[in-house]
Amino acid sequence: MSTSAENNLTWFNFTTLWFGAAISVAEILAGGLLAPLGFKLGVMAVLLGHLVGTTLLVLGGVIGTNERIPALVSTRISFGQYGSYIFSVLNVLQLLGWTAVMIIVGARSLNNITKLLWSFDNLAIWSLVIGAFSFLWVWLGKDSGWKKTNHIAVILLFLLTIVLSVLIFRSHSLFSRPVTGDMTFGSALELAVVMPLSWLPLISDYTRFAKTKQGGAGGSWLGYFLGSSWMYIIGLGSAIISSNPDPSAMLLAANLGIAALGIIILATVTTTFMDAYSAGVTLLNIFPNLNEKKIALIMTVIGTGLAIIANIDQYQNFLYAIGSVFAPLFAVLLTDYFIFKNKTIQKDLLVNWATLFFCILGTVLYYQFIKFDFFFGSTIPVMLLVSILYSLTWRLTKSWKYVKKS
């Protein structure tokens, strides 16, 4: 739990934090997956998906601000102590996956640049370079110096988005170029919703330090919605125009040369920091005596190692796996907190079997909606169904709990 002296992050801090987190190669690549829809329909899916996903994200952050607790600790409200441990382990695994994914996509972009500029082709070296910078970013921590550095980074990343946007929108073929591939609107919508959803298990790790609830919620929503939507649209446009959403190609086309290296590193490191840091915070839910910064540094090292030996050809399936777990989880928690006004962690509650059942049911339903390619994607209907079913049955299942014996 945070102390009053630590609760000093403002609306501006959260806007820059989440805008910087959203500006990443991974988000651009995700936007590129929507190219088969065409630009106009693709943008519609991006904006609608982010409107829903970012709003859900911020609702999770409000819990952190109100209760001054990290995201995974807040799950004890609905699932009990041991239940929260299960989700903590799953969250650490997804964060390690994200750390590796961010390093891999950043390293590939850097490798593409150096291959063309200097014929230097070594993906492992670039993974180590990004991992080293991420390690340094985590080591700097959340002190005042870090906040100033983060603001500078976001300004530079904002300039990057302008450059990439000019390169995309100056093309006259953006709205007329024939697209290839097959994707439904529901699949595109889901890929737009699931990206902000993947941050749900992390957001309270930061909003618990908000100076005000309005500042934490408003800044987080604005920063992430603008940044992530923009990245998706850049990736979408790039994939339509050049059949390659990787920003390295666009940066080279703009003759940015060496500057492109620094831009890619910065965009990758600012997001990788949040993944590694929150992995450390999550483990504190199970092992409260650990040092969160040391754990975050260890996670950065492990993520770098995974990046060197793994591949991300199944990036889309990785996003679906995250949605399948955390959509039903937060459907239950948000229903408990905002509808039933259950805002207290019961210290004697170890496991709530009913809420765990609804999470498992939600995961099964998620993949059924993926299979049937529902128009509204999977996250939206699954969260609504889980919330409704839980609301209708909670009186019947409220005794399905395992509590500490006095």
Map the helices and strands.
Blueprint: H1 11-22, H2 25-32, H3 39-67, H4 71-74, H5 76-118, H6 123-140, H7 144-169, H8 185-197, H9 200-207, H10 213-242, H11 247-253, H12 258-284, H13 292-309, H14 315-339, E1 349-352, H15 353-372, H16 379-397, E2 401-403
Antiparallel strand pairs: 1-2
Helix pairs in contact: 1-7, 1-10, 2-10, 3-8, 3-9, 3-10, 5-6, 5-11, 5-12, 5-13, 5-14, 6-12, 6-13, 7-10, 7-12, 8-14, 12-13, 14-15, 14-16, 15-16
Fold and architecture overview:
By secondary structure, the protein is mainly alpha-helical. The chain has one domain: Orthogonal Bundle (Hydantoin permease), CATH 1.10.4160.10. Helix content is 76%, strand content 2%. It contains 16 helices and two strands. It has helices at 11-22, 25-32, 39-67, 71-74, 76-118, 123-140, 144-169, 185-197, 200-207, 213-242, 247-253, 258-284, 292-309, 315-339, 353-372, 379-397; strands spanning 349-352, 401-403. It has a two-stranded antiparallel sheet. Helix 5 (76-118) packs parallel to helix 11 (247-253), helix 6 packs antiparallel against helix 13 (292-309) and helix 7 (144-169) packs parallel to helix 10. The longest helix is centred in the first third of the chain and has 43 residues, at 76-118. It is globular and about 70 Å long. The mean pLDDT is 85.
